[in-house]
Design a protein that fits this description.
TIM Barrel, eight-stranded parallel beta barrel, alpha/beta, globular, 292 residues
Length: 292
């Protein structure tokens, strides 16, 4: 349903933490012009955990309106509260989003049965295409392939962003689900390998700062020219690593600030990038041909 390089968009903010709407519009235009294949608005990279529900819906609506059908908008609507996730997903559908991305419930550590019922409840409540998001390193819960296969039988659950850190997991999901579910890499460093294994693209942090380059990499990989994709990905490898020298989205927001695309705002408990990380991120940007 969605293929290629999909950016996990940051939410730009003023120094006081208020959403910077002018910068957000600038980012949408940047991705339209750069060939990004879809925008994920207010995913976890967009600091969804610290935007209240009203702001969350406002950002989704704003991005949908500014994109104006020029590229798909996937709304991040996950929560560790099933009721809140339903409310956010309904808001996204009403705003005109093309799909929703729902991170697994964090902190409360539901069982696999709890995860199944959580996602089923959202899918039954809101008739919009939905993409599961598994990132155990951030949520302390792992959505296992067998549970994914159960969920794949629900008609409006159309994909999964898999960020458990192994291509083997991608293969296992595809083996169990076949063509009933599309798999997207949640790890930029594994994006090419994920497509080579049968995935359909990446939901990417790196795409925030190198959208055209990552679009090209995914275009090559999806065309079947995996070796050319690997070569094209080499200049981006430093970014895939350096943008995680501190917790995401701290480094990527700093990089975008150096590019003049956003200001310095970030919400507590996240803090500005430590000076010790400035040089590694800057060097990775330069290696990718990005100058700020």
């Amino acid at each position: 349903m969605f293929h290629g390089s999909m950016v996990a968009l940051v939410t730009p903010m003023h120094p006081d933490g208020a959403v910077d709407w002018e910068a957000l519009e600038r980012l949408v235009e940047f991705h339209v012009e750069s060939g990004t294949d879809a925008i994920v608005a207010v995913g976890t990279t967009g600091e969804s955990a610290t935007l209240d529900e009203r702001e969350h819906c406002q950002v989704i609506r704003f991005v949908v309106e500014r994109a104006r059908g020029r590229l798909p908008v996937i709304a991040g609507t996950g929560s560790n509260s099933t009721r809140e996730a339903i409310d956010l997903t309904r808001c996204a559908m009403e705003a005109g989003a093309d799909a929703c991305l729902l991170v697994t419930p964090y902190y409360n550590k539901p069982t696999q049965e709890g995860l199944y019922r959580h996602y089923r409840a959202i899918a039954e409540a809101v008739a919009i295409p939905q993409i599961l998001y598994n990132v155990p390193g951030r949520t302390a819960v792992d959505l296992l392939p067998e549970t994914v296969a159960r969920l794949a039988g629900i008609s409006n659950i159309v994909g999964i962003k898999e960020a458990s850190g192994t291509v083997e997991r991608v293969g296992e999901i595809l083996r169990l689900c076949g063509d009933t579910l599309e798999v997207y890499s949640g790890d930029d460093a594994l994006a090419v390998d994920t497509v080579a294994a049968g995935g359909k693209g990446v939901i990417s942090v790196t795409a925030n700062v190198a959208p055209a380059a990552l679009h090209h990499v995914m275009e090559l990989a999806l065309s079947g020219d995996v070796e050319a994709a690997r070569r094209a990905n080499v200049p981006l490898e430093g970014l895939h690593s350096a943008l995680f020298c501190e917790s995401n989205p701290i480094p990527v927001k700093w990089a975008l600030q150096q590019m003049g695309l956003i200001g310095p705002g970030i919400r507590l408990p996240l803090t500005p990038l430590a000076p010790t990380c400035h040089a590694p991120v800057r060097q990775a940007m330069e290696a990718a041909g990005i100058h700020g």
